[in-house]
Amino acid sequence: MQPSSTQTSRRHFIRTSLAGATGLAALPTWAAPTGANGDIRVAVIGFNGRGAGHIKSLEEIPGVRIVALCDVDNIVLQKGLASQAKKGNTVTAYTDYRKLMLDPEVDAVTIATPNHTHTLIAMTAMQHGKHVYVEKPVCHNIWEGRQLLNAAEKVAKKGIVVQHGMQRRSSPGWASAMAWVKEGHIGKVTLSRGINFKKRESIGKIAAPVEPKDGLVKGTFHDLRNTKTDPKGAAQEVDTDYKLWAGPRGIAPVNRTQFHYDWHWQWAFGNGDIGNQGPHQTDVGRWALGDPEQLPKRVMSFGGRWGYEDDGETANNQMAFWAYEPAPLLFDNRGLPLKDMDWKQEPVYRVNGKTAAARVGNVIHCEGGYIIESKAYDLEGKTITKFDNFNDGSDHMLNFINSVRAGKLINPNLHVSHGFHAASLAHLANISYRLGKATSVDEVRERIKNDKAGLETYEHFVQNLVDNKIDLNVDKINAGPWLEFDPVAEKFTGEFAAEANALATENYVEEFKLPEI
After folding, report:
1. Looking at 41-55, 220-234, 488-502, which range is the least confident one?
2. Nearest to 291 by CA among 422, 431, 428, 186
3. Contacts of 247 (CB under 8 A, 6+ apart)
4. Mapping DSSP to helix (H, G, I), strand (E, B) and coil, where does residue 219 land?
5. How many angstroms separate the CA atoms of 384 and 369, rounded?
6. Which of 388, 389, 385, 412 is nearest to 399 (CA)?
7. SS (H, E, C) 262-303
8. Which of 119, 144, 226, 330 is most open to solvent, judged by the fewest CB atoms within 10 Å of its CB?
C-alpha cells in the first residue's frame, strides 16, 4: 500500500518549507518538526501488548494520524490492520522496521517491541530523522543505553524528539508531590523505596525447544501458566519472522512454552520484573532523590526464582540496593503470593507495620513522615495532605505529540535520560544478582545489618518465602556482591569488575548492530 501522490506532495511541501525555515535542511525533508496546522503521522512498532495502548492513545489526540503499523508476527499485524480498517483508516503494513524507516509519510514512531530491540529500533529511527517514543526499559544493557542517550542529544540539535515511556513523569500529581518533597515539608528524604508486589506464576517448562524454520517461527504455543484455573490453557497462534524478532541476539531455538510476553524472564531478551515493571518505580524513586545526574557508585542485589521450576531465568523475588548519597534507593520485588502458594492471596507492604502501601508503587521516607503515592503522612500514619490530579501519566503520549509539534521536548521530565537511568538501575542490580552465589539467610542478614530499613524489609522478604513453604536451607538466596561503579566512565571497578563489565554490554549480530548517529 503506497501513499497517494497528493499526500506525498503535500507532505513534501510542509516538510521542505519547515526545513528551510528552521535550518534543518540537512535532515531528510520529512524529519523536521510538524507545524501547528499539519497532521502528525505516526507508525506504531510492536503492538501485541503495550503498543495497543499506544494506538488507543494516539487515536484520541486531534491532529494525529496512524499511517503505518509494524509487527514481526503476521497474525498480530493482520489483526491490527483489520482493526484500523473497521475505523476507516487504511495504513501501510510493515514486518521489517528498517523498511518502515524509509517511508517519507512517517513523521514519528512509537516502539513497544521486546526489550532487546528497543535501542536498536530507536536509533535506526533517529538515523532516518524520525521522532521517537520508546517504551521502558529504553535499553537492554547499560552500554547501548549510553549510545541511545548520546544519539538523542545529537538529533535534538536538529529538532528531533526522543521521549521515554516513563508515564508518571507526565502526572501533575506526581510533579506536585516531588515539588512538595523538595520544599522540605516533612524534612529531608532518608530512603526512596520502590515496590512491585505482582504475582508471577510459572511459565511452564517446554518439552523440547522449538527450532525456527527458514527464519520463521510458526505454530501454536500453549500458555502453561494458568492451567490450574484454566485447564485448557491459553493458546498463542504465532507466525513470526524470527530473524527480525531476535534481531541483535541472533537466531536460536525458542525455549519457552509461550512465545510472546514470557521472553521477559529470559536474559537474552528481557530483564526480569526489575527491568519490566521496575523502571517505573525506580524512576519515581530517583525523582524523589532529586534526579541524580549520575548512576550510583555502589549496588547490590539478591533474590531467586522460587516456588516452581520453569523456563524462566530471572528472579521472581528480588531486592536491590543502590547507594545514592545522601539517601539510598531500595527496590523490593515479590512475585509469589502472600502464603501457601495460593495465588488468590497477595502480599502487602506496610510502613511502620501500619499504613499499607500500593502493591505496585513508591514510598518516599523522610525525617518527619512519608509519602505513599498520592498522600503524605506523618510518622504516626496520620494524613497530612493529598496531591490532586494524581494519575499514571494519562497525557504522556499527548506530551510527546506536543513536543513533536514544537520540535523540542516541552518538559525536561520527558528527556530520554530519565529512561536511561531507570533502565540502568535495573541493569546494575541484575548484574550483581547474576554474579551471585547461594547464600544463607544469616549471611545476607550480616551483610545488611547496619541498614535498618533494608534489614526490616529483608526480614519481611524472607518471611514471605517461608510462608510460601520455601526451604531456604535448600533453595538458598542467590546473593550478589556489592559492586563498585565509576559513574563517570560508566564502568565497574574493584574485585568483580571484569565479570560485571562483561554483563554491561552484549554481542550484536552484524546485521543488527547499532547504527552510528
Report:
1. 220-234
2. 422
3. 116, 117, 120, 509, 512
4. strand
5. 9
6. 412
7. HHHHCCCCCCCCCCCCHHHHHHHHHHHCCCCCCCCCEEEEEE
8. 226
